[in-house]
Protein backbone atom coordinates (compact mmCIF):
# COMPACT_ATOMS: atom_id res chain seq x y z
CA UNK A 1 0.00 0.00 0.00
CA UNK A 2 1.17 3.52 -0.78
CA UNK A 3 0.83 5.77 2.27
CA UNK A 4 3.23 8.46 1.06
CA UNK A 5 0.42 11.01 1.22
CA UNK A 6 0.81 10.92 5.02
CA UNK A 7 4.06 12.88 4.61
CA UNK A 8 1.88 15.87 3.78
CA UNK A 9 0.48 15.80 7.32
CA UNK A 10 2.06 18.22 9.84
CA UNK A 11 1.54 15.66 12.62
CA UNK A 12 3.61 12.57 13.50
CA UNK A 13 1.63 9.59 12.16
CA UNK A 14 2.04 5.89 11.44
CA UNK A 15 -0.03 3.05 9.98
CA UNK A 16 -0.48 -0.54 11.24
CA UNK A 17 -2.22 -3.56 9.85
CA UNK A 18 -4.94 -5.40 11.76
CA UNK A 19 -2.31 -7.46 13.60
CA UNK A 20 -0.48 -4.37 14.82
CA UNK A 21 2.48 -4.54 12.45
CA UNK A 22 3.79 -1.11 11.47
CA UNK A 23 3.38 -0.57 7.74
CA UNK A 24 4.41 3.08 7.40
CA UNK A 25 5.79 6.06 9.34
CA UNK A 26 5.63 9.57 7.95
CA UNK A 27 8.59 11.98 8.14
CA UNK A 28 7.29 13.72 11.26
CA UNK A 29 6.95 10.37 13.02
CA UNK A 30 10.49 9.41 12.14
CA UNK A 31 11.77 12.67 13.69
CA UNK A 32 9.66 11.98 16.78
CA UNK A 33 11.14 8.45 17.03
CA UNK A 34 14.71 9.72 16.65
CA UNK A 35 14.19 12.01 19.68
CA UNK A 36 12.75 9.21 21.80
CA UNK A 37 14.81 7.53 24.53
CA UNK A 38 14.36 4.20 22.76
CA UNK A 39 14.21 3.38 19.08
CA UNK A 40 11.45 0.86 19.88
CA UNK A 41 8.96 3.67 20.47
CA UNK A 42 6.60 2.25 17.85
CA UNK A 43 6.40 -1.04 19.73
CA UNK A 44 5.82 0.85 22.97
CA UNK A 45 3.03 2.76 21.33
CA UNK A 46 1.49 -0.41 19.97
CA UNK A 47 1.32 -1.85 23.50
CA UNK A 48 -1.39 0.73 24.26
CA UNK A 49 -4.87 -0.79 24.45
CA UNK A 50 -6.87 2.44 24.18
CA UNK A 51 -7.86 4.10 20.93
CA UNK A 52 -6.13 7.26 22.15
CA UNK A 53 -3.13 7.80 24.44
CA UNK A 54 -0.46 10.38 25.24
CA UNK A 55 3.26 9.73 24.70
CA UNK A 56 6.17 12.03 25.59
CA UNK A 57 9.63 11.76 23.99
CA UNK A 58 13.01 12.78 25.40
CA UNK A 59 12.48 16.40 24.32
CA UNK A 60 9.37 16.46 26.56
CA UNK A 61 7.19 16.86 23.48
CA UNK A 62 3.80 15.32 24.36
CA UNK A 63 1.42 14.11 21.68
CA UNK A 64 -2.06 12.64 21.94
CA UNK A 65 -2.15 9.70 19.48
CA UNK A 66 -5.63 8.91 18.18
CA UNK A 67 -6.43 5.66 16.38
CA UNK A 68 -8.77 5.64 13.36
CA UNK A 69 -9.66 3.12 10.67
CA UNK A 70 -8.45 3.68 7.07
CA UNK A 71 -11.58 2.33 5.43
CA UNK A 72 -10.53 3.01 1.84
CA UNK A 73 -7.30 1.03 2.31
CA UNK A 74 -8.63 -2.21 3.77
CA UNK A 75 -7.74 -3.46 7.27
CA UNK A 76 -5.32 -0.70 8.23
CA UNK A 77 -5.30 1.77 11.12
CA UNK A 78 -3.90 5.28 11.25
CA UNK A 79 -2.36 6.65 14.47
CA UNK A 80 -2.13 10.46 14.29
CA UNK A 81 -0.39 12.53 16.96
CA UNK A 82 -1.79 15.86 18.11
CA UNK A 83 0.33 18.09 20.32
CA UNK A 84 -1.36 17.84 23.74
CA UNK A 85 -0.37 21.31 24.91
CA UNK A 86 -2.47 22.83 22.10
CA UNK A 87 -5.49 20.83 23.22
CA UNK A 88 -5.01 21.78 26.87
CA UNK A 89 -4.71 25.48 25.96
CA UNK A 90 -7.86 25.28 23.85
CA UNK A 91 -9.84 23.56 26.64
CA UNK A 92 -8.60 26.08 29.22
CA UNK A 93 -9.51 29.00 26.94
CA UNK A 94 -12.97 27.52 26.32
CA UNK A 95 -13.62 27.11 30.07
CA UNK A 96 -12.47 30.67 30.75
CA UNK A 97 -14.79 31.98 28.03
CA UNK A 98 -17.75 30.01 29.40
CA UNK A 99 -17.07 31.33 32.91
CA UNK A 100 -16.88 34.91 31.64
CA UNK A 101 -20.18 34.46 29.79
CA UNK A 102 -21.86 33.13 32.94
CA UNK A 103 -20.54 36.02 35.02
CA UNK A 104 -21.64 38.54 32.39
CA UNK A 105 -25.16 37.04 32.32
CA UNK A 106 -25.33 37.23 36.13
CA UNK A 107 -24.21 40.87 36.13
CA UNK A 108 -26.76 41.84 33.47
CA UNK A 109 -29.60 39.93 35.13
CA UNK A 110 -28.92 41.38 38.57
CA UNK A 111 -28.48 45.00 37.55
CA UNK A 112 -31.00 47.15 39.38
CA UNK A 113 -31.32 49.28 36.23
CA UNK A 114 -33.06 47.87 33.19
CA UNK A 115 -30.67 46.52 30.54
CA UNK A 116 -31.84 46.38 26.92
CA UNK A 117 -29.54 45.06 24.15
CA UNK A 118 -30.34 45.33 20.42
CA UNK A 119 -28.56 44.76 17.14
CA UNK A 120 -27.84 47.63 14.74
CA UNK A 121 -31.31 47.29 13.19
CA UNK A 122 -33.02 47.76 16.57
CA UNK A 123 -33.99 44.09 17.06
CA UNK A 124 -34.06 43.14 20.75
CA UNK A 125 -31.47 40.48 21.68
CA UNK A 126 -31.47 40.48 25.49
CA UNK A 127 -33.11 42.18 28.48
CA UNK A 128 -33.06 41.70 32.26
CA UNK A 129 -35.65 41.30 35.02
CA UNK A 130 -35.43 44.97 36.06
CA UNK A 131 -37.14 45.85 32.77
CA UNK A 132 -40.26 44.16 34.17
CA UNK A 133 -40.18 46.30 37.31
CA UNK A 134 -39.75 49.54 35.39
CA UNK A 135 -42.15 48.92 32.50
CA UNK A 136 -44.52 46.31 33.94
CA UNK A 137 -44.03 44.13 30.85
CA UNK A 138 -42.38 40.66 31.04
CA UNK A 139 -38.83 40.76 29.72
CA UNK A 140 -39.54 37.85 27.35
CA UNK A 141 -42.03 40.05 25.47
CA UNK A 142 -39.25 42.25 24.09
CA UNK A 143 -37.04 39.48 22.67
CA UNK A 144 -36.95 39.52 18.87
CA UNK A 145 -39.08 42.67 18.54
CA UNK A 146 -37.77 45.83 16.89
CA UNK A 147 -37.84 49.15 18.74
CA UNK A 148 -39.92 50.67 15.90
CA UNK A 149 -42.62 48.11 16.63
CA UNK A 150 -42.50 48.94 20.35
CA UNK A 151 -42.85 52.65 19.55
CA UNK A 152 -45.92 51.95 17.37
CA UNK A 153 -47.51 50.02 20.25
CA UNK A 154 -46.92 52.94 22.64
CA UNK A 155 -44.47 51.05 24.87
CA UNK A 156 -41.65 53.44 23.92
CA UNK A 157 -42.00 57.16 23.16
CA UNK A 158 -38.95 57.31 20.89
CA UNK A 159 -35.81 55.31 20.24
CA UNK A 160 -32.36 56.01 21.62
CA UNK A 161 -31.09 53.00 19.64
CA UNK A 162 -31.47 54.64 16.22
CA UNK A 163 -29.71 57.79 17.46
CA UNK A 164 -26.76 55.75 18.73
CA UNK A 165 -26.45 53.86 15.41
CA UNK A 166 -26.70 57.09 13.42
CA UNK A 167 -24.36 59.23 15.55
CA UNK A 168 -22.01 56.39 16.59
CA UNK A 169 -21.73 57.67 20.15
CA UNK A 170 -23.33 57.37 23.59
CA UNK A 171 -26.74 59.08 23.70
CA UNK A 172 -28.92 59.84 26.77
CA UNK A 173 -32.55 60.95 26.82
CA UNK A 174 -35.19 61.44 29.52
CA UNK A 175 -38.70 60.29 28.75
CA UNK A 176 -41.86 59.01 30.46
CA UNK A 177 -42.77 55.41 29.69
CA UNK A 178 -46.34 54.29 29.04
CA UNK A 179 -46.86 53.80 32.82
CA UNK A 180 -46.03 57.46 33.36
CA UNK A 181 -42.69 56.77 35.08
CA UNK A 182 -39.90 59.20 34.30
CA UNK A 183 -36.86 57.29 33.09
CA UNK A 184 -33.28 58.13 32.11
CA UNK A 185 -32.33 56.09 29.03
CA UNK A 186 -28.67 55.84 27.98
CA UNK A 187 -27.62 53.96 24.85
CA UNK A 188 -24.00 52.85 24.35
CA UNK A 189 -22.64 51.64 20.99
CA UNK A 190 -20.68 48.40 20.55
CA UNK A 191 -18.44 48.55 17.46
CA UNK A 192 -17.20 45.71 15.25
CA UNK A 193 -13.68 45.54 13.82
CA UNK A 194 -14.74 47.71 10.87
CA UNK A 195 -15.83 50.54 13.14
CA UNK A 196 -19.54 49.99 12.47
CA UNK A 197 -22.12 49.84 15.27
CA UNK A 198 -22.86 46.15 15.80
CA UNK A 199 -24.98 46.32 18.95
CA UNK A 200 -26.50 48.93 21.25
CA UNK A 201 -26.53 48.39 25.04
CA UNK A 202 -29.19 50.58 26.65
CA UNK A 203 -29.44 51.33 30.38
CA UNK A 204 -32.88 52.32 31.72
CA UNK A 205 -33.05 53.98 35.15
CA UNK A 206 -36.30 54.73 36.98
CA UNK A 207 -35.86 58.33 38.14
CA UNK A 208 -38.99 58.21 40.31
CA UNK A 209 -37.43 55.37 42.33
CA UNK A 210 -34.21 57.34 42.63
CA UNK A 211 -36.10 60.35 44.01
CA UNK A 212 -37.90 58.12 46.51
CA UNK A 213 -34.61 56.56 47.63
CA UNK A 214 -33.07 60.00 48.18
CA UNK A 215 -36.06 60.91 50.34
CA UNK A 216 -35.73 57.64 52.26
CA UNK A 217 -32.04 58.31 52.92
CA UNK A 218 -32.86 61.67 54.50
CA UNK A 219 -35.23 59.91 56.89
CA UNK A 220 -32.91 56.99 57.66
CA UNK A 221 -31.81 58.39 61.07
CA UNK A 222 -35.38 58.86 62.32
CA UNK A 223 -35.61 55.48 64.07
CA UNK A 224 -37.89 55.58 67.14
CA UNK A 225 -37.28 53.85 70.48
CA UNK A 226 -39.62 51.03 69.52
CA UNK A 227 -37.37 50.14 66.57
CA UNK A 228 -34.26 50.21 68.75
CA UNK A 229 -35.76 47.87 71.35
CA UNK A 230 -36.84 45.36 68.71
CA UNK A 231 -33.42 45.45 67.04
CA UNK A 232 -31.63 44.76 70.32
CA UNK A 233 -33.77 41.67 70.81
CA UNK A 234 -33.09 40.38 67.33
CA UNK A 235 -29.40 41.16 66.90
CA UNK A 236 -28.32 38.61 69.50
CA UNK A 237 -24.66 39.51 69.39
CA UNK A 238 -22.16 41.20 67.12
CA UNK A 239 -21.73 40.95 63.39
CA UNK A 240 -18.55 38.89 63.36
CA UNK A 241 -19.24 35.38 62.07
CA UNK A 242 -17.27 32.73 63.89
CA UNK A 243 -17.01 29.04 63.21
CA UNK A 244 -16.71 29.06 59.42
CA UNK A 245 -14.60 26.12 58.24
CA UNK A 246 -13.97 26.02 54.50
CA UNK A 247 -11.50 23.23 53.76
CA UNK A 248 -13.20 21.16 51.06
CA UNK A 249 -13.26 22.22 47.42
CA UNK A 250 -17.06 21.83 47.43
CA UNK A 251 -17.55 24.36 50.24
CA UNK A 252 -14.89 26.70 48.82
CA UNK A 253 -16.96 26.99 45.66
CA UNK A 254 -20.06 27.80 47.73
CA UNK A 255 -18.32 30.58 49.65
CA UNK A 256 -16.58 31.95 46.56
CA UNK A 257 -20.02 32.31 44.95
CA UNK A 258 -21.36 33.94 48.12
CA UNK A 259 -18.45 36.37 48.15
CA UNK A 260 -19.04 37.34 44.51
CA UNK A 261 -22.74 38.08 44.98
CA UNK A 262 -22.49 39.76 48.39
CA UNK A 263 -22.83 43.27 46.99
CA UNK A 264 -25.43 42.37 44.38
CA UNK A 265 -28.88 43.18 45.78
CA UNK A 266 -30.58 40.20 44.14
CA UNK A 267 -32.54 37.66 46.18
CA UNK A 268 -30.58 34.58 47.28
CA UNK A 269 -32.10 31.12 47.88
CA UNK A 270 -29.89 28.88 50.04
CA UNK A 271 -30.64 25.16 49.69
CA UNK A 272 -29.38 22.25 51.75
CA UNK A 273 -30.22 19.61 54.32
CA UNK A 274 -30.93 20.45 57.94
CA UNK A 275 -27.77 21.34 59.84
CA UNK A 276 -25.46 22.19 56.91
CA UNK A 277 -25.01 25.83 57.95
CA UNK A 278 -27.48 27.80 55.81
CA UNK A 279 -27.80 30.53 58.46
CA UNK A 280 -24.00 30.87 58.69
CA UNK A 281 -23.78 31.37 54.92
CA UNK A 282 -26.56 33.97 54.99
CA UNK A 283 -24.73 35.94 57.72
CA UNK A 284 -21.49 35.65 55.69
CA UNK A 285 -23.20 37.23 52.65
CA UNK A 286 -24.51 40.07 54.81
CA UNK A 287 -21.19 40.71 56.57
CA UNK A 288 -19.40 40.97 53.23
CA UNK A 289 -21.92 43.40 51.74
CA UNK A 290 -22.20 47.17 51.86
CA UNK A 291 -25.49 46.73 53.72
CA UNK A 292 -23.54 45.66 56.82
CA UNK A 293 -22.40 49.30 57.24
CA UNK A 294 -25.86 50.85 57.66
CA UNK A 295 -28.33 47.98 58.03
CA UNK A 296 -29.05 45.00 60.21
CA UNK A 297 -29.22 41.24 59.67
CA UNK A 298 -32.71 40.20 60.76
CA UNK A 299 -33.55 36.49 60.94
CA UNK A 300 -36.95 34.84 61.23
CA UNK A 301 -37.76 31.12 61.16
CA UNK A 302 -40.94 30.74 59.12
CA UNK A 303 -41.52 27.25 60.49
CA UNK A 304 -41.20 28.18 64.18
CA UNK A 305 -44.02 30.75 64.34
CA UNK A 306 -47.73 29.90 63.93
CA UNK A 307 -49.09 31.16 60.57
CA UNK A 308 -51.61 33.51 62.23
CA UNK A 309 -48.77 35.28 64.07
CA UNK A 310 -46.18 35.13 61.30
CA UNK A 311 -47.89 37.80 59.19
CA UNK A 312 -47.72 40.38 62.00
CA UNK A 313 -44.07 39.43 62.65
CA UNK A 314 -43.17 39.99 59.00
CA UNK A 315 -45.19 43.11 58.23
CA UNK A 316 -45.98 44.61 61.66
CA UNK A 317 -49.30 45.99 62.83
CA UNK A 318 -50.96 49.29 63.72
CA UNK A 319 -52.54 50.21 67.03
CA UNK A 320 -55.75 48.26 67.66
CA UNK A 321 -55.24 45.96 64.71
CA UNK A 322 -56.38 42.97 66.79
CA UNK A 323 -57.11 41.96 70.37
CA UNK A 324 -53.97 42.17 72.47
CA UNK A 325 -52.12 44.39 69.98
CA UNK A 326 -49.81 47.04 71.44
CA UNK A 327 -51.42 50.48 71.57
CA UNK A 328 -48.34 51.89 69.85
CA UNK A 329 -48.33 49.31 67.07
CA UNK A 330 -45.25 47.32 66.16
CA UNK A 331 -42.84 47.34 63.21
CA UNK A 332 -42.43 44.09 61.31
CA UNK A 333 -39.25 42.34 60.24
CA UNK A 334 -39.25 44.07 56.85
CA UNK A 335 -39.16 47.49 58.52
CA UNK A 336 -36.51 46.41 61.00
CA UNK A 337 -34.36 45.08 58.16
CA UNK A 338 -34.64 48.31 56.16
CA UNK A 339 -31.28 49.00 54.43
CA UNK A 340 -30.15 45.58 55.63
CA UNK A 341 -30.89 41.89 55.05
CA UNK A 342 -33.95 39.85 56.01
CA UNK A 343 -33.14 36.14 56.34
CA UNK A 344 -36.25 33.97 55.91
CA UNK A 345 -35.31 30.51 57.18
CA UNK A 346 -37.52 27.50 56.35
CA UNK A 347 -39.26 29.49 53.61
CA UNK A 348 -41.01 26.31 52.46
CA UNK A 349 -43.22 26.39 55.57
CA UNK A 350 -45.07 29.57 54.50
CA UNK A 351 -48.81 29.22 53.87
CA UNK A 352 -50.08 30.08 50.38
CA UNK A 353 -51.83 33.22 51.66
CA UNK A 354 -48.60 34.52 53.20
CA UNK A 355 -46.72 33.61 50.03
CA UNK A 356 -48.92 36.07 48.12
CA UNK A 357 -48.12 38.91 50.53
CA UNK A 358 -44.41 38.09 50.54
CA UNK A 359 -44.37 38.11 46.72
CA UNK A 360 -45.94 41.57 46.68
CA UNK A 361 -43.39 42.88 49.18
CA UNK A 362 -40.54 41.52 47.04
CA UNK A 363 -41.94 42.87 43.78
CA UNK A 364 -42.97 46.32 44.99
CA UNK A 365 -40.37 46.77 47.75
CA UNK A 366 -43.16 48.04 50.00
CA UNK A 367 -45.24 46.64 52.86
CA UNK A 368 -48.49 47.43 54.62
CA UNK A 369 -48.93 46.82 58.35
CA UNK A 370 -51.88 44.77 59.58
CA UNK A 371 -54.69 47.23 60.32
CA UNK A 372 -52.94 49.95 58.35
CA UNK A 373 -54.17 51.87 55.30
CA UNK A 374 -50.85 53.16 53.95
CA UNK A 375 -47.95 51.33 52.35
CA UNK A 376 -44.32 51.88 53.32
CA UNK A 377 -41.34 51.63 51.00
CA UNK A 378 -38.59 49.35 52.30
CA UNK A 379 -35.07 48.78 51.00
CA UNK A 380 -34.47 45.18 52.01
CA UNK A 381 -32.40 42.39 50.50
CA UNK A 382 -34.06 39.03 51.13
CA UNK A 383 -32.11 35.82 51.64
CA UNK A 384 -34.29 32.71 51.93
CA UNK A 385 -33.34 29.17 52.95
CA UNK A 386 -35.00 25.77 52.95
CA UNK A 387 -34.24 22.07 53.24
CA UNK A 388 -37.27 21.25 51.09
CA UNK A 389 -37.56 20.80 47.32
CA UNK A 390 -39.45 23.95 46.34
CA UNK A 391 -39.69 22.85 42.70
CA UNK A 392 -41.58 19.73 43.76
CA UNK A 393 -43.78 21.86 46.01
CA UNK A 394 -44.57 24.07 43.01
CA UNK A 395 -45.61 20.98 41.04
CA UNK A 396 -47.74 19.83 44.00
CA UNK A 397 -49.40 23.24 44.28
CA UNK A 398 -48.13 23.97 47.79
CA UNK A 399 -45.68 26.69 46.76
CA UNK A 400 -46.36 29.52 44.32
CA UNK A 401 -44.40 29.33 41.08
CA UNK A 402 -44.08 33.12 40.77
CA UNK A 403 -42.65 33.36 44.29
CA UNK A 404 -40.27 30.48 43.58
CA UNK A 405 -38.76 32.30 40.59
CA UNK A 406 -38.64 35.58 42.52
CA UNK A 407 -36.62 33.87 45.29
CA UNK A 408 -34.54 31.65 43.01
CA UNK A 409 -32.58 34.48 41.35
CA UNK A 410 -29.28 33.28 42.87
CA UNK A 411 -29.63 29.70 44.18
CA UNK A 412 -26.75 28.40 46.31
CA UNK A 413 -26.76 24.76 47.40
CA UNK A 414 -24.65 23.70 50.41
CA UNK A 415 -23.57 20.05 50.05
CA UNK A 416 -24.21 17.72 53.02
CA UNK A 417 -21.26 17.02 55.30
CA UNK A 418 -20.91 13.45 53.99
CA UNK A 419 -20.13 14.89 50.53
CA UNK A 420 -17.32 17.19 51.79
CA UNK A 421 -15.35 15.04 54.19
CA UNK A 422 -12.32 17.33 54.04
CA UNK A 423 -14.31 19.69 56.29
CA UNK A 424 -15.01 17.12 59.02
CA UNK A 425 -11.73 17.02 60.96
CA UNK A 426 -11.21 20.82 60.85
CA UNK A 427 -14.77 21.16 62.18
CA UNK A 428 -14.01 18.60 64.90
CA UNK A 429 -10.99 20.70 65.94
CA UNK A 430 -13.07 23.88 65.97
CA UNK A 431 -15.93 22.41 68.03
CA UNK A 432 -13.53 20.71 70.44
CA UNK A 433 -11.66 23.97 71.05
CA UNK A 434 -14.93 25.83 71.59
CA UNK A 435 -16.23 23.28 74.12
CA UNK A 436 -12.88 23.05 75.94
CA UNK A 437 -12.75 26.83 76.22
CA UNK A 438 -16.38 27.09 77.31
CA UNK A 439 -16.10 24.54 80.12
CA UNK A 440 -12.40 24.86 81.02
CA UNK A 441 -11.38 21.41 79.74
CA UNK A 442 -8.28 20.22 77.87
CA UNK A 443 -9.62 17.11 76.16
CA UNK A 444 -8.24 15.57 72.96
CA UNK A 445 -9.35 12.82 70.55
CA UNK A 446 -7.36 9.73 69.56
CA UNK A 447 -6.73 8.75 65.92
CA UNK A 448 -9.30 5.92 65.74
CA UNK A 449 -12.02 8.24 66.98
CA UNK A 450 -11.02 10.87 64.41
CA UNK A 451 -11.08 8.22 61.67
CA UNK A 452 -14.57 7.18 62.74
CA UNK A 453 -15.81 10.78 62.75
CA UNK A 454 -14.39 11.38 59.29
CA UNK A 455 -16.06 8.29 57.80
CA UNK A 456 -19.45 8.57 59.54
CA UNK A 457 -22.34 9.55 57.23
CA UNK A 458 -23.67 12.45 59.43
CA UNK A 459 -27.39 12.57 58.57
CA UNK A 460 -27.66 15.62 60.88
CA UNK A 461 -24.67 17.30 59.21
CA UNK A 462 -22.60 19.97 61.00
CA UNK A 463 -25.17 20.46 63.75
CA UNK A 464 -25.06 16.75 64.64
CA UNK A 465 -21.25 16.79 64.68
CA UNK A 466 -21.15 19.80 67.03
CA UNK A 467 -23.71 18.14 69.30
CA UNK A 468 -21.75 14.88 69.46
CA UNK A 469 -18.44 16.61 70.32
CA UNK A 470 -20.02 18.59 73.17
CA UNK A 471 -21.88 15.51 74.40
CA UNK A 472 -18.71 13.38 74.51
CA UNK A 473 -16.65 16.08 76.24
CA UNK A 474 -19.29 16.62 78.94
CA UNK A 475 -20.07 12.93 79.60
CA UNK A 476 -16.50 11.59 79.67
CA UNK A 477 -14.23 11.98 82.69
CA UNK A 478 -10.99 11.14 80.89
CA UNK A 479 -9.07 13.83 78.98
CA UNK A 480 -8.24 11.40 76.18
CA UNK A 481 -11.37 10.53 74.18
CA UNK A 482 -11.62 7.29 72.18
CA UNK A 483 -14.25 5.27 70.29
CA UNK A 484 -15.28 3.71 73.61
CA UNK A 485 -16.55 7.14 74.70
CA UNK A 486 -19.00 7.37 71.79
CA UNK A 487 -22.72 7.19 72.66
CA UNK A 488 -24.20 3.72 72.10
CA UNK A 489 -25.84 4.44 68.74
CA UNK A 490 -22.50 5.63 67.31
CA UNK A 491 -20.47 2.92 69.04
CA UNK A 492 -22.68 0.29 67.42
CA UNK A 493 -21.73 1.66 64.03
CA UNK A 494 -18.05 1.45 64.99
CA UNK A 495 -18.40 -2.23 65.99
CA UNK A 496 -20.14 -2.93 62.71
CA UNK A 497 -17.02 -1.72 60.89
CA UNK A 498 -14.80 -4.11 62.89
CA UNK A 499 -17.11 -7.10 62.22
CA UNK A 500 -17.18 -6.35 58.49
CA UNK A 501 -13.38 -6.20 58.33
CA UNK A 502 -12.85 -9.44 60.29
CA UNK A 503 -15.31 -12.09 59.12
CA UNK A 504 -17.96 -11.34 56.52
CA UNK A 505 -18.03 -11.82 52.75
CA UNK A 506 -18.58 -8.73 50.61
CA UNK A 507 -22.27 -9.53 50.03
CA UNK A 508 -22.84 -10.29 53.73
CA UNK A 509 -21.04 -7.12 54.74
CA UNK A 510 -23.15 -4.99 52.42
CA UNK A 511 -26.40 -6.50 53.68
CA UNK A 512 -25.31 -6.37 57.32
CA UNK A 513 -24.31 -2.71 57.08
CA UNK A 514 -27.41 -1.82 55.07
CA UNK A 515 -29.70 -3.40 57.65
CA UNK A 516 -28.00 -1.63 60.57
CA UNK A 517 -28.08 1.78 58.87
CA UNK A 518 -31.75 1.38 57.97
CA UNK A 519 -32.61 0.21 61.49
CA UNK A 520 -30.93 3.29 63.00
CA UNK A 521 -32.63 5.57 60.49
CA UNK A 522 -36.03 4.03 61.26
CA UNK A 523 -35.54 4.97 64.91
CA UNK A 524 -34.46 8.52 64.08
CA UNK A 525 -36.89 9.60 61.35
CA UNK A 526 -40.70 9.68 61.14
CA UNK A 527 -41.29 8.47 57.59
CA UNK A 528 -39.67 6.94 54.51
CA UNK A 529 -39.33 10.30 52.78
CA UNK A 530 -37.12 11.66 55.57
CA UNK A 531 -35.04 8.46 55.59
CA UNK A 532 -34.58 8.63 51.81
CA UNK A 533 -33.44 12.25 52.04
CA UNK A 534 -30.98 11.54 54.89
CA UNK A 535 -29.48 8.52 53.09
CA UNK A 536 -29.46 10.25 49.67
CA UNK A 537 -31.58 7.66 47.86
CA UNK A 538 -35.14 7.33 46.54
CA UNK A 539 -38.21 6.76 48.71
CA UNK A 540 -39.30 3.59 46.78
CA UNK A 541 -35.84 2.11 47.45
CA UNK A 542 -36.25 2.75 51.19
CA UNK A 543 -39.71 1.13 51.18
CA UNK A 544 -38.32 -1.94 49.40
CA UNK A 545 -35.30 -2.27 51.71
CA UNK A 546 -37.35 -1.88 54.90
CA UNK A 547 -39.65 -4.65 53.69
CA UNK A 548 -36.65 -6.85 52.84
CA UNK A 549 -35.16 -6.55 56.35
CA UNK A 550 -38.57 -6.48 58.09
CA UNK A 551 -37.84 -3.11 59.70
CA UNK A 552 -40.67 -0.86 60.91
CA UNK A 553 -40.50 2.88 61.49
CA UNK A 554 -41.01 4.17 65.04
CA UNK A 555 -44.53 5.38 65.84
TrEMBL record:
Taking the record's annotation, the residue ranges forming a coiled coil are 210-240
Listed A to Z, the keywords are: Aromatic hydrocarbons catabolism, ATP-binding, Coiled coil, Nucleotide-binding
This entry's Gene Ontology molecular function terms read: ATP binding; DNA binding
Instruction: List residues of the PAC domain.
Output: 167-219
InterPro entries with a match to the protein in the record: AAA+_ATPase, AAA_lid_NorR, Homeodomain-like_sf, HTH_TyrR, P-loop_NTPase, PAS, PAS-assoc_C, PAS-like_dom_sf
For the PAS domain, which residue ranges apply? 100-145
**Start and end of every Sigma-54 factor interaction domain?**
244-474
Q: Which CDD domains match?
A: AAA, PAS
Can the keyword Transmembrane helix be found in this entry's annotation?
Answer: no
Q: Which GO terms describe its biological process?
A: regulation of DNA-templated transcription
Would I find Ribonucleoprotein among this entry's keywords?
no
Pfam assignment, any one: AAA_lid_14
Q: Which SUPFAM superfamilies match?
A: Homeodomain-like (SSF46689), P-loop containing nucleoside triphosphate hydrolases (SSF52540), PYP-like sensor domain (PAS domain) (SSF55785)
Protein name from the UniProt record:
HTH-type transcriptional regulatory protein TyrR
Q: Which organism is it from?
A: Halalkalibacter wakoensis JCM 9140
